[in-house]
Amino acid sequence: MEDDELRVGEQIGSKLFGSIMQSKIAIPIILEDYASSQWCLRELVLMLDCMKNEGQKVFPVFYKVEVPHVRNSGGRYKVAFDKWKKKLGEKVVEEWKEALREVCSLRGWQSEKDENGYEGALVKTIVEEVRSELYGTSQLIKELMGIDERVEQITSWIDVKFNDTRIVGIWGNIGVGKTTLARVLYNKLSIHFKHLSFVANIRETSLHKGIECLQRQLIDDKLRSPNDVSIDKISVIKSQFMNKKVLVLLDDIDAITDFNALIGDISWVKAGSIVIVTTRNKKFIDEAKVDHKYEVNKLTLNESLILFSRHAFQKDYPIKGYEILSHSIVSITAGLPLALKVIGSCLYEQSRGVWNNISKKLMEVPHQQVQEMLRICYEELDDMEQQFFWI
Predict the structure, then answer these.
(1) 96: CATH
(2) Fewest beta carbons less than 10 Å away: which of 10, 98, 299, 376?
(3) Where are the beta strands (DSSP E) in 280-336?
(4) Is the Cβ–Cβ distance between 82 and 49 less than 8 Å?
């Protein structure tokens, strides 16, 4: 609730505006008396300015007020603006009116129309939209070119309203971006589920620590204790997720025995559940009997250059004087996002001598030997940079 008398301090104002400027999403709630508060109007102007200049998202909520009424500044809006015109001048008021006209053209919600006026359902809709905006299109999307299209293709196979369980298998060579794609898909779908689990790096963890520590991730915290070693973990997992609609991501799994120890016969989960698996093993995809298979292919030369440049130059293209070197390095990586990101990051703000040295060494590495490419970059770094490499 706004009160001009309570907000007279410049310190409060600067903190408030700072918070708006640092936000990714702004949700102005437009009420009948919105224009009676100059703080609300000033905040709205700032939100729209951040939207134009910084890419901030603005989703208005029109609460018990008609959009045309706000757009035309009628009723109480006219009364409020007449008051502000006398006090602050016509120029300020016109800026506020223009801001209201602009916000009325944005996609948002109307409390009396959306969800049939049921406020609880409206709030849930807004929360889901914000979560989807924040996590479904997060920084991960910048890590894999064309990821929007790939996620859209996979989700077109899945309808969370369907009454059957789906297993989605994402597979491809090491370094092509399977995990990144799966994480974006997982984040996008997560708004539809209350019960979720993301089990990462299964192949490596199972090899060195055993499958039990991964099983525990699928078991409620209260069951994790030294006394549960003898418990049949798959039975416990089933009992915890029995008849629940779940979303599970099993990342980098290549053995059917590990799959059976974590999920097994998924008929015990509630219809509508989704299990996503990522693997480099095409045979596992067939053994797990996935419903939908998606092969992650290498990036094109142009996509590779953009991704590499984002990490090497913080731009979508090479800077002047580094075009030939960049094209040479990109052609060596064979369209593998992992190599492009790591090599580009290692070369960021490095001298031309380092560029030439790494480029020369990479030329000697057979295509798709990603680990060898990464080792070359790692050894080129000084001790402190090598420590940051592992963070």
Answers:
(1) 3.40.50.10140
(2) 10
(3) 292-295
(4) no
Rounded CA separation 58/306 (Å): 29
Task: Report which of 2, 52, 56, 5 is spatially closest to residue 26, judged by C-alpha positions.
Answer: 56
- Tell me the pLDDT tens digit for each residue of 347-386: 888 888 888 888 888 777 655 455 555 665 556 555 544 4
Whether the model pTM is above 0.70:
no
The count of domains in the chain is: 3
Residues 212, 265 within the same domain: yes
Burial class (CB in 10 A: 0-12, 13-18, 19+), 7: middle
Domain that holds residue 378: 301-389
Residue 39 has pLDDT above 90, yes or no: no
Higher pLDDT, 25 or 118: 25
Q: Does residue 80 lie within any of the structural domains? A: yes
Choose between 104 and 218: higher pLDDT. 104
Is-catalytic flag, 43? yes
**CA neighbor of 132 nearest in space, from 184, 75, 65, 73:** 184
Predicted confidence (pLDDT) per residue in 299-320, tens digit: 888 888 988 898 889 888 899 9
Catalytic residue among 10, 32, 43, 143: 43
Contact 58, 47 (CB under 8 A): yes
Residue 245 lies in a domain: yes
pLDDT exceeds 50 at position 51: yes
**Is 359 within 8 Å of 328 (Cβ atoms)?**
yes
CB 292 within 8 A of CB 169: yes
Domain end marker among 108, 127, 146 = 127
Give 199's DSSP letter: E
Distance of alpha carbon 241 from alpha carbon 166, whole angstroms? 16
Q: In one letter, which amino acid is 379?
A: E
Whether 291 and 306 map to the same domain: the answer is: no
Give the whole-angstrom CA distance, residue 313 versus residue 169. 34
